[in-house]
Write a structure and sequence with these properties.
With 244 residues, the protein is of the alpha/beta class. It has one domain: 3-Layer(aba) Sandwich (Rossmann fold). It has 7 helices and 11 strands. One of its GO terms (molecular function) is transferase activity.
């Protein structure tokens, strides 16, 4: 099988390694089947899409809607590189799955309005599939509504004209969309389980997602939640697009 590629941007080694482990676990992949490139550590190398089965984009501390003048040189470079890659991915309708940061990155690339209107605190929310979502092969077998983990400072306020809405929630209307047939983005995190979310809360305690002194409360709420459906989406993506 040709490997999948995980594009990552987390500078904290614990969070970056935990994210990679989560994509391996829920994608049903061995280490040799998932190459990782940490974009925050250096420039994106030249990629031949033909070398891969598909691409994952993990979550990020970056917010694409931040004022340009406030972005670091690293963030600006990463955004340029991802924009150039998405030019090729969308044109080729190449299998792509962006989790959380994927909505901001793919949405902005496709002309969506990305801002803080529908930001959500860290925790579990209920996601509901649209009719198009229920009909999409990637979501086959999922219940119409299911719990998912979120935690983001920005979201898609207006869906790109090129996109099909696949899932929504009361607190954030755009939870998942598709561009063409094979390019996907979710606002929720299908790669997270309870312990991974608790680890994120600890790592990003001072990152502005919640008051730092409330971290323990967020961890307790996370441990009390039951989220066991979204992980199937990653396995479905791998199963659908794995190729020799």
């Amino acid at each position: 099988m040709k490997p999948f590629l995980l594009l990552a941007t987390r500078a904290e080694n614990y969070a970056a390694d935990a994210e990679y482990a989560s994509f391996l676990r829920y994608g049903g992949l061995a280490g040799k089947d998932l190459r990782r490139i940490r974009l925050e550590a250096g420039p994106l190398p030249e990629l031949d899409l033909a070398d891969y089965s598909g691409i994952f984009l993990g979550g990020s501390p970056f917010n694409s809607s931040d004022p340009e003048e406030s972005k670091s040189a690293v963030q600006l470079r990463v955004e340029r590189e991802l924009g150039g890659l998405l030019d090729r991915v969308v044109a080729a309708d190449f299998p792509f799955f962006g989790a959380c940061y994927g909505v901001g990155t793919l949405g902005r690339h496709q002309g969506a309005v990305i801002d803080s209107t529908y930001a959500e605190p860290i925790g579990a929310i209920e996601v509901t599939l649209t009719a198009d979502g229920a009909a999409d092969p990637l979501l086959a077998g999922l219940p119409t509504s299911f719990a998912a983990y979120v935690g983001h400072k920005e979201a898609c306020r207006t869906l790109p004209e090129s996109a099909v809405l696949l899932a929504s929630s009361d607190t954030c209307p755009v939870q998942m969309f598709r561009v063409r047939e094979n390019v996907f983005a979710t606002q929720f995190h299908p790669e997270l389980d309870v312990e991974a979310l608790v680890g994120r809360i600890s790592t990003y305690r001072h990152a502005g997602y919640f008051p730092p002194d409330q971290a323990d409360e967020y961890m307790e709420r996370a441990r009390a939640s039951v989220v066991d459906q979204p992980e199937a989406i990653l396995r479905a993506f791998v199963t659908r697009y794995a190729r020799d």
